[in-house]
Design brief:
With 247 residues, this protein is of the alpha/beta class. The protein has eleven helices and four strands.
């Protein structure tokens, strides 16, 4: 049996639809109100994430603390997914920030890396960032004057770090997909996702029917040009890398 399937990306980057597609294809992605938060598809491990992600990103954990972190996550996942002879996995955006940790913890795990336009993640999305996580990716001495510039630098560096790890260390177990691509051409990208997850193509039609293009795609264009220009300048290396050129 292949390892579990984890879905991650930046907060509010569209990871939910990926979990819904896999659940529709018969992969256990948790149970609402028990393993998942009631209002979302996120795995219900907020307490663990709040305790451990920051120190993990800052490389502050001792060997004993890393072992304690691993044991706590292992225990919780065993409680939530006690039977593992059927396909299973979970979605939580912060999985992206913990990718090396999860790769070591869960043998054979596969990772679906969801990327959304950093301008949409940065502008008009007050829930996307976490100051503690942003600080782990943005040097305090860098000339980023605004919260938006810091946010897009976090977006770029966190996605690049995950992509570099996935491509170099997870051959055949890493899938990168842009949210906009899935929404624009579900009949092209849903089969890729199902194949990666080991799900039957018989679920394609049902899964495609779940995909809708939200009106929030491209919302960054509604913001003042001066602000957009600063965000694009701060994020240019990563916007270019992930295929988001200026409009």
């Amino acid at each position: 049996m292949a390892g579990p399937i984890l879905i991650g990306g930046n907060g509010h980057s569209g990871t939910r639809i990926f979990a819904e597609i896999l659940a529709a294809a018969g992969i256990r992605m948790g149970t609402a109100g028990i393993t998942r938060s009631r209002a979302s598809y996120d795995l219900n491990i907020r307490g663990l994430l709040t305790r451990w992600v920051g120190p993990y990103l800052r490389n502050e954990l001792t060997g004993d603390q890393r072992a304690e972190m691993a044991q706590q996550f292992r225990t919780r996942l065993r409680l939530y997914f006690p039977t593992r002879w059927t396909p299973w996995g979970f979605k939580n955006p912060r999985s992206m920030l913990l990718l090396p940790f999860y790769d070591e913890l869960l043998a054979g795990m596969r990772f679906v890396h969801v990327i959304r336009d950093g301008r949409d993640v940065t502008l008009g999305n007050v829930l996307a960032g976490n100051a503690e996580y942003i600080a782990a990716y943005v040097d305090g001495h860098e000339p980023f004057a605004s919260a938006e510039e810091k946010m897009i630098a976090f977006w770029g560096r966190s996605n690049a770090t995950a992509a570099d790890y996935g491509k170099s260390r997870m051959s055949g177990r890493y899938l990168q997909m842009r949210f906009e691509d899935l929404c624009t051409a579900p009949r092209l990208h849903v089969p890729r996702l199902l194949e990666f997850a080991g799900a039957s193509p018989a679920h394609t039609e049902r899964a495609c029917a779940l995909v809708q293009r939200p009106g929030s795609i491209g919302r960054w264009q509604q913001f003042p040009k001066e602000l957009v220009g600063k965000v694009e300048a701060a994020g240019r290396p990563w916007l270019d890398r992930f295929g988001y050129g200026a409009a």
